[in-house]
Design a protein that fits this description.
- This protein is α/β, with parallel strands linked by helices.
- Helices cover about 45% and strands about 15% of the residues.
- It is built from 13 helices and eight strands.
- It has an eight-stranded mixed β-sheet, with helices on both faces.
- Helix 1 links the parallel strand 1 and strand 2.
- Helix 8 runs parallel beside helix 9 and helix 11 runs antiparallel to helix 12.
- The longest helix is centred in the last third of the chain and has 25 residues.
Length: about 325
């Protein structure tokens, strides 16, 4: 039905990469080769990977998967994924971050959709997330957005990146049309590629099942969230410059996109009780586009911690009931 290369970029991933590998080895679809690109790790990532390699491995099955380990000097996730693409020979390519994991029928479900629709080149899925205590939520998306996740998604994707890289299964031939990951982008290189691949093309399929589990990290939230959206902005700027034929429409969508960026930064800061910093981001978001939701969170940043805690508990209760 088509061989799959699973590319796992890794940098100092000794704590989690074993779970990622095991989730691939547990796939019900078996025509898979795992390509691990070690991007200059200084920890025991290599030693962890080697435990899963070779026919003598305790993790070998009746239908074993080949695991290829490639080491390169640290050049970032884009370069690591590109190295994996260079090595890949299968009909399909999947990406899995070293700290994420898959549900066992993930690849099988996507392959079936590919076989039922020959126009598709990229299929992504819903996802769940889990924390250090292994608490897993149900879905990463709200239902009102899912209707725009398939077909011609370019403008919807520009407004908001709803493709999780660890959920993607892609035809390898698509790289000939859209290129590979841009190594000048330290982050959001995946977002940049999805925009290039989907511009003017109805090639995207979506599976409304959480077939990927994304690990939540709460450390260094202030630095990481701002750094992430700095590179999101770079990807947005690059997209506007790359497609002059739709630049007018992209510029019309830009205020919404920037408002979304600042709201997301503010929300993540608010969730870790950095209310002063969150307040600044909510105000910036409102300058680009007024949204009642943003105003609500702005007001919350002025309330006492005890009142905010009540609101958070109410929201958590309602979310768990839905």
């Amino acid at each position: 039905m088509g061989s799959v290369n699973v590319i796992i970029p890794a940098f100092n991933s000794e704590l989690y990469i074993g779970q990622a590998i095991e989730s691939v080895l547990a796939q019900t679809y078996r025509d898979i080769e795992i390509i691990i690109v070690d991007d200059g790790s200084t920890d025991s990532t290599k030693e962890v990977v080697e435990k899963y390699m070779g026919p003598q491995s305790q993790h070998a099955t009746k239908s074993p998967m080949n695991i290829c380990y490639i080491y390169q000097e640290n050049r970032g996730p884009a370069a690591a994924r590109n190295k994996g693409i260079e090595y890949a020979q299968g009909e399909y390519v999947a990406f899995l971050d070293a700290d994420d994991r898959w549900v066992d029928k993930k690849i099988e479900t996507q392959i079936k959709l590919f076989k039922n629709n020959s126009t598709l080149e990229l299929i992504h899925t819903d996802y769940s997330s889990f924390d250090l205590q292994a608490n897993v939520n149900n879905s990463g998306y709200t239902n009102k957005f899912k209707k725009c996740f398939a077909g011609d998604i370019f403008f919807s994707l520009f407004r908001e990146n709803f493709i999780r890289t660890s959920s993607v299964l892609l035809k390898r031939e698509s790289f000939k049309k859209g290129g590979v990951f841009n190594e000048s982008l330290s982050m959001s290189e995946d977002y940049d590629l999805w925009l290039r691949l989907t511009k003017g093309r109805k090639i995207t399929g979506y599976i409304d099942l959480p077939l990927v589990q994304v690990r939540r990290h709460n450390s260094h939230i202030t630095r990481d969230v701002r750094n992430t959206y700095f590179w999101v902005d770079k990807a947005i700027e690059k997209t506007i410059c790359a497609f002059p034929d739709v630049r007018k429409k992209l510029n019309q969508l830009l205020p919404y996109r920037l408002a979304k960026n600042h709201f997301t930064i503010g929300y993540k800061l608010f969730c870790v009780n950095k209310n002063d910093e969150a307040r600044k981001e909510f105000k910036r978001s409102l300058k680009f586009k007024f949204k009642l939701k943003t105003l609500k969170y702005l007001v919350l940043t002025y309330l006492s911690p005890s009142i905010i805690l009540i609101f958070k508990r109410i929201k958590s209760f309602l979310t768990n009931r839905s």
